[in-house]
Each structure stands twice: as C-alpha cells, then as structure tokens.
Design brief:
The chain is an alpha/beta fold. It contains 19 helices and 16 strands. Helices cover 43% and strands 17% of the residues. The site of orotidine-5'-monophosphate has 14 residues, from β10, β14 and α16. It is an enzyme of class 2 (transferase).
Length: 486
C-alpha cells in the first residue's frame, strides 16, 4: 500500500487529520519521568521508551500518522537509534510513519533513501530542499513512499531568507512552485510551519493538490479560532490534504486519549463548516498566484495533476484508437482550475466581436455558462438532438437571426464536433466566424477550420502541453510523442 493510500485509509478509519510527533525529548517528558529527576536519570532511555509506548497506545486509533524526529533519537547516541527502531516496531502497520529527518545533504540522499525506505520501512520523510531536485530525486525513486519538503518555518530569523526578496513574492512560495514539477501530489507534499494561517492560504493557492504537513500552529490563543483559520486556509477543495500536529504538551497528559478525541471532534466540526464555506465561495475566488510567471505552463501542470491527461487505449470520436485521452470535463470539479480556465478563454473572447456565446453540448456547456456570466454576454446552445416534444427547438436560448455568435468548445481534434455545432447555429440564420477552444492539435486543425470559413483560437496547443509535461518530468518522451503525433 502506498503512503498516500495508507494515509487516506488512516484518515478515514480514525476520522482524524492529526499527526503525533514521536519525539523522545527529555524536556517534554511527563513530570514524574523527567531526566532531572535523579532516580530516573540513569534510566532515561527506558523512561523515554515507556513514554513513547504510552503515546502510541493512547493514539493509534485516533491519529492518521506518526512523525518521529530523527534528531531527538540521534541526540541519545547509539541507544537513541535503537530506541527509534523499537518505536517503529511499536507503531501499527496501518498508520503511516513520516520520519522527520529534514535531510539536506545531496551526497547521502541515495543511501539514506535506501536505508529509511527499505530497511527502516518508514512511509515518508521530510527533506530540506535547499539543494534542489537532485537531493529529492533519490527519494522519489520509491513510488510508494512520500517526501515532505520543508517549505517554511515559524522562527522569526527565518523571515530574511524565506521571505526573500519581499513578503509579497517570498522564496518559500517560489520553492513550492518549482517543486511541484518534481513529483506527483501523491508523492510530494510540503511541511509548513506557521503561526499565521495566511501562509497556508498562499501555499494552498498555488499547490491545490498537495498534502500540507503543518507545524507550529499552536502559537497561543483560542484553539477553536486557530483551527478555524488553519483549516480554512489549508484544506484543499475537497476538504482534505492537511495534516495537523497534536500539541506537544498534550503528549505528557495522562488523559491523552480523551484530549485527542476532543481535538478530533473539534477539527471534524470545523472541517465540515469550512468545507461547506469553501465550496460556496471558491467558485468565485480568482486564483491569484503571486509567483505566476508562466500562466499557461502552470495551468498545464494543474490540468495534468487533476487527471485531464490520461494514458491507455482510448477510442476517439473519429473511431481511431489512441494511447491517450484528453478529458477536459474534469475541470468543472475543481473550481480553482475551472476559474483559471475561464479566465484564459475570457482573455481571448475579449478580443472578439460577437453578440452571443454558444457552447457545444455537453462538454462545453459549463464553460459557456461561466463565460456568459463572467463577461455578461448572453448564451445559447445548439441541441445535440432535437426533442420530439415540447418546443422542439434545435437551439436553446433567445437569439435573433443575423446575430454573430462565438462558439466555445473544449478541444479540437479533427475539429468536426465544433464545426457541426457551428453549422447548426448557421442553419438558424446566425453568423459564426470564431471558434474558441482550450486545447487544439496545432496548426493542421486550425487550417482545416480556416478552409471551412472559421477562425480557430486556442488557449493551448497539444505541443505546448506535451513539451511542458515532458520538461517537468510528468510524462515520458514516449508519452509526449503519443500526445503530439497520434
Ligand atoms: O473522442 C475524441 O476523439 C476525444 C478525444 C480526446 O482525447 N478528448 C476528447 O475530448 N475527445 C472528444 O472529441 C471531441 C472533439 O473531437 P473532434 O470532433 O475530432 O475535434 C470532444 O468534444 C470530445 O468529446
């Protein structure tokens, strides 16, 4: 079972987004076991082990992941490493373990990946990505494991580096933007330490599909308020993708199980509320990305990440079988991407002269509706089939013959679907000259439309898509070839 599957299974089974840091930190031990107690001092490692056993026993049905911090075990010397193995043994197989190593040494990445994933059998690891993709790649060679990249920390001195060159376009967001191309959302997430939820909102806005491992959120203040802000800023569009630390001081509490239950209930309640609110307003939220330098490149990666570009054997509208399929209908289920797609169409439509927007059913009806509302222009659509009852209209919506209509379609492969729709409009006396799509198969299909009296406009060509996906490591050269030349 992959990290991602195991994590999601644990989240669902235990109804929890909570992660427990299994840190044998003598300073945080329950009072009676403290290292400064002269009786306990020489039995420190045993006491720490008992404490970790107690924490696991009290929480394994209540949390979705454990996160032992390697540094605390290393600090205890040889006995510490042995303690780590004992702690790993104690954790039930059904709960994923993220080793908090913050590993940052390029030269030892391959050997460490082998040791922690193959020998220690942990499911994920935190990495310090300052050395770039080369450091992370050896860990991503294990498709069932995950990495969390240190993105931001909450200590005040970090600001000069992490928010460089300016807080409005900080380096830590540049890191997210860059690292999204290194691995899939199932394999690569971000660790974000913050006491202000704005940071989570910004990371989430440019990484809608990634798992965010939060920390340092319990800076003080009302727990409900903190959770409200953190969940609002950090949850993804489906109300998931966020891991929350159990406050460290709770781990020394005798009532740990009850405290964690209470925290889960609070999160559950707030999560439900926030998910409903987010679902309501996200549709209208512009997807503002401060670091957006190549808008189409970013959009292409998002389209891939939400599963619009599929590989396998697929029969096309033309009857041919290709080894890929472009399923742009998924866009409507991701309001953030949908909003961005509408924006891109809108930029093209603003340059054109037309009276009405027509969508080609079914795939392009949501797009035409969104554009109609966004640009405040009336919409119509040609029916796929005319009903044998009711008005028996071939075209739905109001129009006057002689008006100019811009046709909106999702994709031009041969171009026939778009032209068939346009022909229906023309046969009702409307003028159709422009056809606007999100994606086309390049100059050939655009020229075909031109030969038939239409101007084709597209946001993206399949060649740009293939090139970007290939460069970002999302697809293989063979898959890029299939996209471009099938
Ligand atoms: O069926 C297809 O050919 C097809 C392949 C593909 O990868 N993606 C895709 O969306 N389609 C469908 O093909 C239509 C456009 O194909 P053409 O009529 O050949 O331009 C779209 O409206 C889809 O219904």
């Amino acid at each position: 079972m992959s990290f991602y599957e195991k994590l999601n299974a644990a989240i669902a089974r235990n109804r929890s987004l909570l992660v427990v840091a299994l840190d044998p930190n003598p300073e945080m031990m329950p009072r009676g076991d403290r290292a400064d107690d002269p009786i306990a001092a020489d039995k420190l490692v045993t006491s720490l082990k008992d404490w970790m056993a107690f924490v696991i026993g009290a929480t394994s049905d209540r949390v979705c992941a454990y996160k032992p911090t390697l540094g605390f075990y290393q600090a205890l010397g040889t006995a510490g490493l042995e303690l780590l193995f004992q702690v790993l043994e104690m954790i039930p197989d059904s709960i994923p373990v993220i080793l908090d190593a913050k590993h940052g040494d390029l030269n030892t990445s391959s050997v460490l990946a082998k040791t922690v994933f193959e020998e220690w059998q942990v499911d994920g690891i935190t990495l310090n990505p300052y050395a770039g993709q080369d450091l992370v790649a050896p860990f991503l060679m294990y498709p069932d494991k995950a990495v969390f990249l240190l993105c931001r920390t909450s200590n005040p001195a970090a600001v000069v580096l992490q928010e460089y060159p300016e807080p409005e376009s900080p380096f830590y967001l540049q890191l997210v933007e860059e690292a999204k191309a290194w691995g899939t959302p199932e394999q690569l997430g971000f660790e974000v330490g913050t006491t202000t939820a704005d940071v989570l909102t910004m990371v989430r806005s440019i990484a809608p599909e990634r798992t965010i491992l939060t920390r340092s959120i319990w800076g003080g203040g009302d727990m409900d308020e903190i959770l409200g802000e953190v969940l609002k800023g950090g949850l993804n569009a489906t109300g998931e993708g966020l891991l929350i630390p159990v406050p460290q001081d709770l781990l020394a509490s005798e009532n740990l199980a009850a405290e964690v239950d209470l925290l889960n209930q609070k999160i559950d309640r707030i999560r439900d509320r926030v998910s409903q609110e987010n679902a309501r307003c996200e549709l209208w939220m512009p997807d503002v990305c401060i670091l957006e330098k190549h808008p189409h490149q970013d959009l292409i990666l998002q389209l891939f990440d939400i599963g619009c570009i599929l590989f396998g054997d697929y029969v096309q509208a033309s009857g041919e079988t290709f080894t890929h399929y472009i399923d742009l209908r998924k866009i409507i289920s991701n309001p953030q991407v949908f909003d961005r797609v509408l924006q891109a169409y809108g930029e093209i439509l603003q340059e054109l002269k037309f009276d009405r927007i027509a969508g080609i059913p079914y795939g392009s009806l949501p797009t035409a509706t969104g554009l109609s509302l966004r640009l405040e222009r009336p919409m119509i659509f040609p029916r796929k089939e005319v009903k044998a009852h009711g008005t028996r209209r071939a075209i739905e919506g109001g129009f006057v013959p002689g008006e100019t209509v811009v046709v909106v379609e999702d994709i031009l492969i041969t171009g026939n679907s778009a032209m068939e729709g346009a022909a229906k409009l023309k046969s009702a006396g409307l003028v159709v000259e422009d056809i606007v799509v999100l994606l086309d198969r390049g100059e050939e299909v655009r020229n075909y439309l031109k030969d038939n009296g239409y101007r084709a406009h597209s946001v993206l060509s399949i060649f740009e898509v293939a090139d970007t996906l290939l460069k970002s490591g999302r697809i293989t050269p063979k898959q890029a070839e299939a996209l471009c030349h099938e």
